[in-house]
Amino acid sequence: MSGHGIGIEEARKLAQRVEHFVRETIIPYETDARWGAHGPSEEMVGDMRTHAREAGLMTPHILTDGNHLSQRETAIVLRASGLSPLGPVALNTAAPDEGNMFLLGKIANSELQARFLRPLVEGRARSAFFMTEPASENGAGSDPSMMMTSCARDGNHWVINGRKAFITGVEGAQVGIVMAQSGEGACMFLVDLPDPAIRVERVIDTIDETMPGGHAVVAIENLRVPADQMLGNSGEGFKYAQIRLAPARLSHCMRWHGACLRAQEIATAYANRRLAFGKPLVDHEGVGFMLADNLIDLKQAELITDWCAHTLDTGAPGTTESSMTKVAVSEALFRVADRCVQIMGGTGVSRDTIVELIFREVRAFRIYDGPSEVHRWSLAKKIKRDWQAAQPAAA
Are residues 189 and 287 in the same domain? Predict the structure, then answer.
């Protein structure tokens, strides 16, 4: 998949269709009893995706010829999909599938794309990305170089052993991307799921609950993968991970920006209708100013995501830009969601609206795809490198 795109104006028209679909068709599913602590059920996902297909909006960021929208165009569409936490699931723009599709479109050969990518793009399958490992075993987390899962060549197969943690969506997934260490470095493999050699030990109870299948701890015991299912070359797995992670961080920003726009709408309506001390809440500066600060944070988040998207569209690696954007947007959106809860008082912490769930989801976003502190540390290292490089050579 390349990013030829459709043009910004056409992307806006597409986003309008996506927004209408989410508001009219998907938001009513937010009260569906089939949505549990570990995400919507497979049946519920199937129902929502049937509606998306009928509307001609399944996987809207990937064109029928396989080409991907540009990152700027994707930003516009994914924001609209995020107006409900269920929107990305219904439209097939959710993590981890969206990032996995992007990676396979860039790295997989035509045979692997036909076998593994096509069902994902068509919304007939879900996927899981097996990278993070249990903290209790000092495995890979924010520092992927600590990866302990191993892979060894055995004839025409690779044999993989290890444990993974916080693997999103593995229960119910049909496609897996597994990272492991060979003697040459990190490797990526494509696998069919389920596989008896990949055993879900438990699904973790977490603060968020929108991703089908939840987040699992997984044991991998003598998983045999045909050599031709290695993604790319042995030892280049971390390079491929960066290809995936930079735009994936941006996609998270886009989706949750849409969710926080929705929270702001709900909090604004509440503040205008709720009376206290003889006037609407919005007329009290303590409340009105919070809504104003939200407006500022939302606009700044929009601008920095558009800037980062433009950088990626130029062909730049975008690692620095995506780190900056991920920190700025995740923290700005958390402030927005937090203020919305505060404005709505008791109603804000109740499940009478979607606001409390958006608050919980955005809190997790400050950790997922790299905690803010790790991105700041990476940026600080770059600042030091750039300063050192700018110093005159010693005489």
Answer: no
Euclidean distance between CA atoms 240 and 309, whole angstroms: 19
Query: Based on the domain organization, do 243 and 354 belong to the same domain?
Result: yes
CB 267 within 8 A of CB 344: yes
DSSP 230: B
**Tokens of residue 363, six digits:** 């809190």
Question: Consecutive sets of 10 residues in the chain, 395 residues long: mean pLDDT of each?
Answer: 78 98 98 96 98 98 92 97 98 96 95 97 98 94 92 98 98 98 96 98 96 97 98 94 89 97 98 97 98 98 96 92 97 98 98 98 94 96 96 77
pLDDT of the residue at 395: 54
Q: Are residues 147 and 228 in the same domain?
A: yes
Q: Is residue 330 part of a domain?
A: yes
3-state secondary structure of 82: coil
CA 126 to chain centre: 14
> Which structural domain, as residue segments, surrounds residue 264?
238-387
Residue in this structure with the two tokens 């290695």, named with its chain if needed: 230
Residue-level pLDDT at 64: 87
List the CATH number of the domain containing 166: 2.40.110.10
DSSP string, 187-223: EEEEEESS-TTEEEEEEEP-S---STT-EEEEEEEEE
Q: Is residue 67 part of a domain?
A: yes
| Euclidean distance between CA atoms 220 and 258, whole angstroms | 36
